[in-house]
Amino acid sequence: MSTSSEIPNLISLVTNTLTRLGFLKSATTNFGAVEEFGVRAFQQERGLIVSGEIDAPTIRAIEEARWKLGDRVLSFIPGQPLRGDDVATLQSRLVEMGFDCGRVDAIFAEKTEVAVKDFQKSCGVKADGVCGPVTIMSLMRLMKTVSGGAPTQLRDIARRAVRGPALANKIIVLDPSSLPEDHEITFDISQRLEGRLIALGVTVFLSRSSQKDPDENERIDLANRSGADLVISFHTDNYENDLAHGIATYYYGNEQHGVHSVVGERFAALAQREITARTDLLNCHTHAKSWDLLRLTKAPTVRIDLGYLSNPGDMKRLLDPAFRETVVESIVVAIQRLYLSAENDAKTGTLKISDLRRAGLRKN
Prior knowledge:
By secondary structure, this protein is an alpha/beta fold. The protein has 14 helices and 7 strands. Strands 1, 2, 3, 4, 5, 6 and 7 form a 7-stranded mixed beta sheet that branches.
């Protein structure tokens, strides 16, 4: 909660940044106008939840949006990594030239430092991992002549191919919502899915139990420490109009930085198609978002919103055990299809779990 002395500074930060970025026509002290006209547009572009409220994720994104490459010296600070659009621009340019800094997440962590050092060595600049004026000038000069295509995307696809089609050597983290209104539904679906996956030889971690409820940062840390191949987060939605209904899936992507998770997008699409093909849930499509869970989790991560609790029809479906089983089977098939080669893939809605067993896809 912001104190009364912090509020003017917050208003100044928000209005000045949104004005500079073009989301407000002129700076204003009318906080209501800022929220109504500027914040929603900013949230939409940045892949945040479009609430119009200046919440913690929005404040962080506004702070990051202040920085352009060259505004400050960038370096790795253990425990307090620099974040900002300038870091994302640096990462994007390194990736385009073939230097592996991992995901373009706007966070200057150890892997980004290593990529900067590798770049510095390649162009004869002091390899200290610090991105200052000399390194930026070298980066700008070489960007005109060198391009590595999309090596990060190629690496993600290659890793998936190397892991093979068998599910027995995969690690999957299931992340059920802990909100009071849907924690029982999402936990039940996660447990049902856990049982199906274990039977197919998958190593499964649940991000929470019926007794322990870690916060989002702890869930992200669990997923990163587990060495997961895939993270699936289960939620439901609500809306003021009870006519809103259907299922949607989300993966990491940021149009502002021109990046997205290739594998995450692929699995989101597969899960979306399999569930809508096997149920009568409305297809609300897949969407790129930059929510922390999607952005900061190293493994491909997908959030599935299983329907609207505010819609009587969706609510009735979600309370039906048979419907939940259908959703679980849809997701298992989507997971398997994620790892199948194009020639071995099947049409949406046709594969069954029994087919996977008969095909021996649970074996190494």
